[in-house]
Amino acid sequence: MNNTVVLKLGGSVITEKENAGVIDHTRLMAIAETIASHNNSPLILIHGAGSCGHPEAERFGIQGGVGQTNAMGIGETHRAVAGLNATVVSILRDAGLDAIGIHPLSGSLAENGRLISFETGHLAGMARLGIIPVLHGDVVMDRTKGACIVSGDQLVLRIAEGVAPCRVGLATDVPGVLSDGRVVGMISRASLNGIDLGNSQKTDVTGGMKGKVEELLTLADAGIISSIFHIDRLLAFLTGGEHGGTTIMGADT
Ligand SMILES: Nc1ncnc2c1ncn2[C@@H]1O[C@H](COP(=O)(O)OP(=O)(O)OP(=O)(O)O)[C@@H](O)[C@H]1O
Ligand SMILES: C=C(C)CCOP(=O)(O)O
């Protein structure tokens, strides 16, 4: 383990998920300022697509597989989320952060919706130099499905497995995993029963909170703890304070 931090900004945080293509610039500027003022660790950022990708992925039926009839959807979906990434990177750079956008479509390969070829060495190298690689959920070529959607949550899993970070956090628009209206402080595979993990309230092709928890439980199986918290608690997460969210741990912890 090293002192690298892996942080995901949920698509519901940086876009208006109910308004296709609308980016929340004000919130992004506030996030950039918080990171610039308080982050002192090597940082790798991932963000979701929110309303800049999910509508396109749904419209072209990407998750059902890609062939000649919907191949156009690859470019249209990537264009939407790459445009969001360019805005995220620009706002981070305006805040004085050395952010560089990285597109999973360029150079990764999936099989049946799961990444099978995904390099992380260059990300760790950038982070060690004080550069912030900014990746995002993306459409990725797939050996069996033609192409698929790789969520930011799956990228968190693969990046954390590759760089062995000291801290992994996923900021979203809810305080954590909720059960009966209350935040569940800790989740492991043994404690999942009874928690209703559903999809997002808005257009979402990657499984909402259920998909998120599944990826993070796999990460916990590899011995890496992660947390889901509300974006308003970003400062607490960055400084190692109490973020009031949900910690996802391994079965034996
Ligand atoms: N048990 C639950 N606790 C909390 N949120 C839940 C739960 N079940 C379903 N949800 C929904 O999951 C949403 C968060 O998942 P979502 O995938 O939208 O997060 P995100 O990371 O911001 O988006 P993206 O994955 O597109 O980047 C919440 O806004 C809520 O509507
Ligand atoms: C829909 C696309 C293009 C990416 C989805 O990534 P997520 O928003 O992190 O689930």
Automatic annotation (TrEMBL):
Q: Which domain of life is it from?
A: Archaea
Site feature Transition state stabilizer: at which residues?
Answer: 17
Alphabetized GO MF terms = ATP binding; isopentenyl phosphate kinase activity; kinase activity
Keywords, sorted A to Z: ATP-binding, Isoprene biosynthesis, Kinase, Nucleotide-binding, Transferase
**Catalysed transformations (reactions):** isopentenyl phosphate + ATP = isopentenyl diphosphate + ADP
Which family would the database say this protein is a member of?
Answer: Belongs to the isopentenyl phosphate kinase family.
Protein purpose: Catalyzes the formation of isopentenyl diphosphate (IPP), the building block of all isoprenoids.
Q: What name does UniProt use for this protein?
A: Isopentenyl phosphate kinase
